[in-house]
Amino acid sequence: MTPGIESAYAKRKIAARAATVASSAAVVLALAPLVAIFLHVAVRGVRALSVSFFTEPVGARGAGMANAVFGTIQLVLLASAMGIPLGIAGGLYLSECRHTRLARAVRFCADVLAGVPSILVGVAVYAVVVVRMKQFSAFAGAAALAIVMLPLVVRTTDVLARAVPDSLREAALALGATRWRTAIFVVLRTAAPGIRSGCMLAVARVCGETAPLLFTAYNNRFFNDSLFDPTSTLQVQIFTYTMTPNEDWHAQAWAAALVLVAIVVVLDVLARRLVERKEVA
Amino acid sequence: MIGARRLVAIVGVAAAAGLAVFATWSRASRADAPARVIDGAGATLPFPLYAKWSSELLRVDGTLRINYQPLGSGAGIRQMSDGVIDFGATDEPLTDEQLKDAGRDLVHVPMTIGAVVLAYNVPGVPELKLTPDVIADVFRGTITRWDDPRLREANASVTMPSEPIKVVHRADGSGTSATLTTYLARNSEAWRADVGLGVSPRFPVGVGSRGSDGVTAYVKSTPFAIGYVELTYAKQASLPIALVRNRAGNFVAPSIESLDRAARSALDRVPDDLRISLVDSDDPGAYPLTALSFLVLPRDSRDREKGEALARFAWWGLHEGQRYAAALDYAPLPRELVAHGERVVRELRAGGEPVRVAYEGNGG
Amino acid sequence: MTPSALPSSSREAPRALRITDAARGSGDRVFGAVGAVAAGFLGLVLVTVAVCVVHLAWPSIRETGLSFFGTSAWDPARDVYGALAFVWGTAMTSVVALCLAVPIGLGVAVFLTDLGPRPLRRPVSSLVELLAAIPSVVYGLWAAFVVAPLLRSSIEPALAAIGGPLFRGPPMGVGILCASIVLAIMVLPTIATVSRDVLAAVPSELREGALALGATSWDVVRLVVVPHARRGLFGAVLLGFGRAVGETIAVATVIGSRADVSLSLFAPGYTMSSVIANEFPSATSDLHVAALAEVGLLLFVVTVAFNVAARLLVRGERYGRALTVPAGNR
Prior knowledge:
heterotrimer; B: 364 residues; three-stranded mixed sheet; 13 helices; C: 13 helices
């Protein structure tokens, strides 16, 4: 090798080293806010968290957020009950009837709906549900969250069910299974772990959604008596308390943020673990 | 391995649980009907008082639960006319047009009197006197620094810092904004031409913040900021408050007495529907930025229980409720306004029939 | 086609699975019907949202027409509305956010697929995805109590010393800059993970070929991987843009809520989504509500356009996986 080529190669090696350093720097820059947010939420949240946070409802000054914790759980459960079965059924239809005109149209709609800002979902649910029912309600909030969830679940199910090899379908059909049995007991079964993880991620996502709740679930000082009453949620309560001069309320907001982040992170990590375990197995 | 059966089972269980929860709650609401929550929203100005009332009512009478959301007077007006809340609250009475456009017949009941104050955060300036022209020019952006000659002129006794003024205003529809802009529009030609008045004026400069809490938080955390909020908010955040020049030319501090004088000077011009403004009173001792805060109620509630609860709440507020006003720096209503309020409350109906409530308590 | 006549090519197999074939009994028909209804419901929801926003916006569309987007006069007290300030604020915050997030996001993506040490790739990938999981309202809280005071007390005064039209005016803390920074953090995981998936989809033969010719890892990225994945990377950026445009709560907390067109990053501003969050519940006149809905309509159109464009660029299943099951295993 001539020295010229050698030095050119050395230069390229230096460039490679520099690029590695630069990309590592990008990673550090990307993760710095994550660390900062987690630290702030953990430190300030733990300091403010107490038993009364989970037992006392929102009060005049201080008190707890029991009704908001309860409201968030309620809304997410109800939204899941509406969104997940519908989403899985729709997604399975898309994958098993993937070439029908309806399927193509709906797949496009799912992409569009996934991109619609959730505040607009809130506006629509306000106009269609809240004004009709003459009442802000947990039900309206859950409906808005379900709409946010729906495209996520549909798309996960569709993508994962389509990834199931057709040879499995053919084998089932050859053995005399009907299409719906094939779809549910072969396709859905094979794709189930991934779909479940996808659903958990969708649930995690709506746990943090605030914008669609402002004009649907609204807020409540008390525990909601029914699903047809305004309902307090951790998300809206944090949003409200962020913009106050009261330090008690700031502390409460950090505590609520800690609870919310904990829920979301646990769901997130769990969902990923499940997928990974499946892949190892 | 987790199969489809398990997945279907999980989904099924979730759906069933959802339905069960749904059924239980819907039924629960019927069972203990008297304790139903009354939902209201609107002005942030009287919120500290209404929050206190809500707690007190719960203590003395467990059957009245008031869920009041301070989202601004604009929200009170809008959500009341959309019919999605049981009562609204506003510091700015509805206009004739708003009353006409509302889906139902609405009445105003005066509840309390509050002061809109100019709260500021300027180290080394414990006292500040403001004329309407100066306020207008600060909020219009023509006075931009704390050491502007016109600010120094009225405040010769203090040294004003050489710093830019950071103006904060409301970002939501607000009766507090309406009170301030009404006063400024009456007293400043430039303000009237540039900005006008109303619950959502377009401020030429400054940062917008949500609710009185939001404005207070911003002023408190930002040196050299000035904003306008109700007196209680400023006091609880220990922010200094400017003296404001009234119609008679006196610099007046907001106090229960100066608010009361503003209210009394207006008593002889209270119309039948009680839609009256206390801003910019002629009385030499009156605080000019005085706001009368109203409840907005349906004249005829669809729901009997809710109609009765609303009447009881309004009645309680007009009488026992007034006792809590002074401690939070609101002025109790003068006897005459209470009497006007009583008249309106007595005429409330539910399902087309008069509300049956034992109107106890004295007339103020 | 009868089910027994399964085609030999798997590409045609789905055709054989069509549920329109009634030979297999009512179960299939029920399955098909339930599925179609469920899928159709999604379409119905989308149409309802769109129709609803258009319906609400109609009075404003009729009243102001196209001039709505050309003027920044937003004056509810006089019932005059123009959306220019919100369009401007949205564009400004999104562009600044992307300027911050794109280089970092691409750097992270390259780290994850080519340059980073193998044992680190997976944990870093999971952490970046965790960033996407933090709720918007928590970002808002953090921005209001950590970022804004920091900007006001040290960063903005330092930038003001540089001068120029971008850094003018008193340091307020809240404003365009604060919102942009938070947005950058929020869209970073989208850009990083989608880019990662796009880069990972470049066939390994190409990499191996280049390496066999003596290329360094950086040469591979620069000369082979990135040119091959250019379209997809552009799609990732568009997707990030779509997210930035639609983000509401965190922005509403720190944007400063002022309908104005200003070049300065220190100035308070407004975005399309945050004005809806702030004013929709308290708009008192019908035209005000309609004007807000028209802003919403524009927001709808813009976000949909960006998402569809991104979808066309980042084609296929990888994109779906990146958004729905970021499994942290690549």
